[in-house]
Amino acid sequence: MAEIVLDKVTKRYPDGALAVSDVDIEIADGEFLILVGPSGCGKSTTLNMIAGLEDITDGELRIDGQRVNERAPKDRDIAMVFQSYALYPHMSVRENMAFPLRLAKVDNQTVNQKVDEAARILDLTQHLDRKPANLSGGQRQRVAMGRAIVRDPKAFLMDEPLSNLDAKLRVQMRTSVSKLQKRLGTTTVYVTHDQTEAMTLGDRVVVMRGGHVQQIGSPQFLYEQPANLFVAGFIGSPSMNFLPATLENGGLSTPLGAFPLTDRIRLLVEGANAPREVIMGLRPEHFEDAALVDGQSTTFEATVDVLESMGSDKFAYFTVEGETATSAELEELAADAGSADLTDSGAQIVTRLSAASAAKQGTPLDVWFDADKVQLFDPADGRNLTYSG
Amino acid sequence: MAAIGTAAPAGAKARWALIDILVVVYALVPVLWIVSLSFKTKETLTDGNFVPRSWTWQNYVDIFNTTEFIRALVNSIGIALIATVIAVVLGTMAAYAIARLEFPGKRALVGVSLLIAMFPQVSLVSPLFEMERGLGLFDTWPGLILPYITFALPLAIYTLSAFFREIPWELEKAAKMDGATPAQAFRRVIAPLAAPGVFTTAILVFIFCWNDFLFAISLTSTEASRTVPAALSFFTGSSQFEDPTGTVSAAAVVITVPIILFVLFFQRRIVAGLTSGAVKG
Ligand SMILES: Nc1ncnc2c1ncn2[C@@H]1O[C@H](COP(=O)(O)OP(=O)(O)O)[C@@H](O)[C@H]1O
Ligand SMILES: [Mg+2]
User: Fold this and answer.
1) Per the database record, which ranges form the ABC transporter domain (chain A) (predicted)?
2) Does residue B174 sit within a domain?
3) Strand runs (DSSP E) across B25-97, as ranges?
4) At how many degrees (to 10) do helices A108-121 and A93-103 cross?
């Protein structure tokens, strides 16, 4: 078990690409830390630097207070689970899991005992003598985990370990990984590009973008207090709705209509030195069918484009006429989600209404939103003007 | 439905079986013919029977009674083995670099080796003859080993780099994370996975050297370095009027045996798809 500190860590590849820039992360002993961000943002590079598979260009990596920049992977006592699992195809499951112990010259009896125990935890006992080629995807994934846990390393590093599994198995394995980590209490750094995994698994989440850390915090904190537009748009599913808005006379004029700012938000915005033109963000659950709310101060009427009833809630999609919010962050998020040119006319809004709502597809609906949950962002640099963390 | 479902594959199976049999027969009949000739007596040699009427070991006894053949066999084995070992070792290093590393001139290297493989060997025979005579290599083992390596290397590099590209290099990283030194990672993970490729290449290169006639006949003049394919063409009967067909056939059978042994010996190691299951699911 160990505490891992990344101190201004930078990685520049030989071809000049700056993959990771000035990353500062302190990972506490026993913590489950998630690195999340779109593909190419430098997550794997960061993980590989912790592992020792990539050199650190600049900055310092400390494990338990000791600088380890120059240590070979084998001298760092860290285990890694690869996205591809990287099982040794010429070895049986037992030999695969025993490999780290054999290299450490552990005696036969202890090896067998540890492998058997790991196999029992991971439900692999009846597969110990098979070759990886004869296992299912989920079983291979568990062997990879087994190989990591047999030798009680100081830390686990996992690079998108579940991304090759099908959706159902992924959810199942997500729970097992989480349980396993709690049970072993080993410091774990887990890389994923899936925000759902990030939200459900980690004690703390690091959101990265283009080699820079955007924000570090507990999943709930990132969800409620995103530091900028990128984090706001990346965390949460369905994601936050963004609309262009103008700050004037202590109120906000938006495509949903003009309304006064609540006192709380006004104070924050004044303190943040906000520009006139801003981007307003509202999460889907902060909307409601106006018929179900008392004291409807902030409402708008729009036609329901699509209605998805999930039983417990209803998701209603609207198109709001007028401009759409634009910024570099939003474009990057849209590109990452693969929805870059879906915006034909007006902005799409997703709302989560309670199951009691009478909303119908194709008919107009009065929708209320919680004005105190509005978040405002500076379009120029993306910072959250209503951040109070 | 079920009837159609089973009938179609059965029909396809029969068709494939027929095609397979045709191919095998086509390939094996000449070989069996040679074997048959080698066991015939001088009198029945030309009787046209596929199965000899009267069997004899005489042809085999004859060839092993001449130093000519035994010397040639020793030359063949020695030259082919040495050339194979050198070509495979050099080829392994080159292919590893091509599969694993980015370096300036990589494309040029691959292009040049392809060029060598395509170069018509017969056009090189005269210059090689002159050069080897000038250098004192003519009619020596190195005189054959060198051109064999030259022409086997492109083959080796090609086959090996195709194999090496199939090895998931993440395995090497995994081994490092599991606590292996680079040497241990190579010996315990990479080498076992590369072995089938190396053995396959070794067999191909060995067969290439073993079967060569062009260089063997042009760059040798005595028993000092003449290999079996060349020596065969010098076979005569015990008198010059005697037909050497029987002894040539026996010699041909004898030189096929090492190839078969070579392949059988390494076959166990050439397990196709050994790397499957290393990654993904
Ligand atoms: N070996 C390499 N050489 C040069 N650039 C690389 C190399 N590996 C990754 N990169 C670049 O570094 C950036 C971060 O890559 P990576 O850490 O793999 O991202 P992620 O894991 O978040 O998807 C990317 O822009 C990628 O193109
Ligand atoms: Mg990655």
Assistant:
1) 4-235
2) yes
3) none
4) 130
Find the ligand nearest to A41 CA. Answer: 1
**What digits encode the pLDDT tens for the residues A308-358?**
999 999 999 999 888 888 888 888 888 887 765 555 567 889 999 999 999
Q: What is the ipTM metric for this complex? A: 0.85
- Is the distance from CB of B79 to CB of B148 less than 8 angstroms? yes
Spacing of C-alpha A372 from chain mean position: 25
Co-location of B44 and B121 in the same domain: no
Please indicate whether residue A13, judged by its CB atom, sits closer than 6 Å to ligand 1.
yes
Give the range of the structural domain holding residue B39, as residue numbers without chain letter: 1-56
- Per-residue tokens: B267: 């076959």
Residue B137 half-sphere exposure toward CB, CA atoms < 13 A = 17
Q: Where are the domains of chain A?
A: 4-229, 238-377
Quick check: is B104 in a domain? yes
**Counting Cβ atoms within 10 Å, is residue A194 exposed (0-12), middle (13-18) or buried (19+)?**
middle
Considering only CB atoms, which residues of chain A are within 8 Å of chain B? 51-53, 72-74, 78-80, 82, 84-90, 99-100, 103-104, 131-138, 140-141, 147, 151, 164-165
Which fold, A4-229? Answer: Rossmann fold (3.40.50)
What is the distance in A from the centroid of ligand 2 to the CA of A118? 27
Is residue A137 lining ligand 1, measured as CB closer than 6 Å? Answer: no
Tell me whether residues A84 and B170 touch, CB distance under 8 A: yes
**B48, B73: one domain:** no
Total structural domains within chain B: 2
